[in-house]
Amino acid sequence: MDWSCLTKLNGFSLDIASFLAHASSDSYFDMDRKSHLEERWNCQVRLVDVNESQAMVFDGPSLVISFRGTEPTEIRDWLSDLNVLKTSWKNSLSVHSGFLDAYLSVRNKVLAECANAQGRDIFLCGHSLGGEIADLAAIDLESLGMHPRRIYTFGAPRALGSFSARKARNVFQGRKFRVVNGNDIVPRVPICLRFQHFGTLAYINRFLSPGSEQDDVKADIEINPGLAYLLYDRILGYRADMLSSHSMSNYIQGIENAKTNRVLRADF
Predict the structure, then answer these.
(1) What's the average model confidence in pLDDT over 34-38?
(2) Taking a C-beta distance cutoff of 8 angstroms, is the pair 66, 56 a contact?
(3) Phi, psi for residue 11 in degrees, rounded to 5
(4) Cis before 190? omega within 30
(5) What is the distance between the alpha carbons of residues 31 and 87, in angstroms, rounded to a whole number?
(6) pTM of the model
(7) What's the mean pLDDT when you consider all of the chain?
(8) CA-CA distance, 25 to 37, in Å (whole number)?
(9) Which end of the chain lies in a sparser environment, N or C, as judged by fewer CB atoms within 10 Å?
């Protein structure tokens, strides 16, 4: 993997998105593939595993921590049993209690890894539930003076109350990017009246979906598109199984398709 892309931090980056998407995907591997992972990433790789919450630590020129998401076979059960209770965190933040519990279980080990970064930049990422754990880790690190350089999430659900989300948007403006793939249903839960996202939306439109016919003009990753665009694109790009858009492999393919087309507007 080419770590040099992490030094180019001008807005949303397809190269960083690709790099951290692969890190998010590889967080699903077990440590019996440790030697393979270390050869692939050319760095030490460690697994943080506490009470069914896991994070993969890629200890290279920068420190990359990738939080493991929901296993694909468990997505349907996770959506049907979604805990929508809020809890208070850090005095003033309103947070999804289930996601906070998942982060707090690995918090001490994650903080220890970041404390040992020794001046290196910290990057956080994750897919699905792992993306929301990455968000909470970013908020925690920021409050402790260990400022993550970038946070990229892929198909992450909502986790913060509206006031808390507004505060996070201001703090992480230009550093947090949430990548959403077309009709992926997971980023639309829990209901927006109780929970909201923060960070710049990087939306993989229907022309970049695996198997679609790509159009050199329209194939794009749209940055912060409006609601009308999202509705129109999702209707035309509808898939019978909306959960298929949630797979990490489809996220990686959409990003790689965008890199091939190279149609991001210059101001991004």
Answers:
(1) 91
(2) yes
(3) 70, -160
(4) yes
(5) 33
(6) 0.91
(7) 86
(8) 11
(9) C
Cα 266 versus chain centre, distance: 24
Pairing between β-strand 93-96 and β-strand 44-50 as defined by DSSP bridges = unpaired
Q: How far is CA 204 from the centre of its chain?
A: 13
DSSP per-residue codes, 34-46? HHHHHHHHTSEEE
How far is it, in rounded angstroms, from Cα 87 to Cα 160? Answer: 10
User: For residues 159 and 153, what is the distance between their CA atoms, to the nearest angstrom?
Assistant: 13
CA distances from 165 to 84, 154, 160, 197 (A): 16, 18, 5, 6
H or E segment at 13? none
How far, in Å, CA of 87 to CA of 96, rounded?
6
Strand residue runs (E) in 111-175: 122-127, 150-154
Cα separations in angstroms, 201 against 137, 153, 226, 233 = 19, 10, 10, 15
In one letter, which amino acid is 47? L
Nearest to 148 by CA among 162, 129, 168: 168
Name the 3-class secondary structure at 182: coil
Q: How far, in Å, CA of 94 to CA of 72, rounded?
A: 28
For residue 122, the 8-state DSSP code is E
Token pair for residue 19? 């790099």
Are the C-beta atoms of 201 and 176 separated by less than 8 Å?
no
Q: Beta strand pairing status for 176-181 and 150-154?
A: parallel
Q: What confidence tens digit (pLDDT) does each residue in 93-144 have?
A: 898 888 898 899 999 999 999 998 888 999 999 999 999 999 999 999 999 9
Helix (H) or strand (E) holding 149: none
Predicted confidence at residue 193, as pLDDT, reads 66
**How many Å apart are CA 41 and CA 35, to the nearest integer?**
10
SS3 annotation, 91-120: CCEEEEHHHHHHHHHHHHHHHHHHHCCCCC
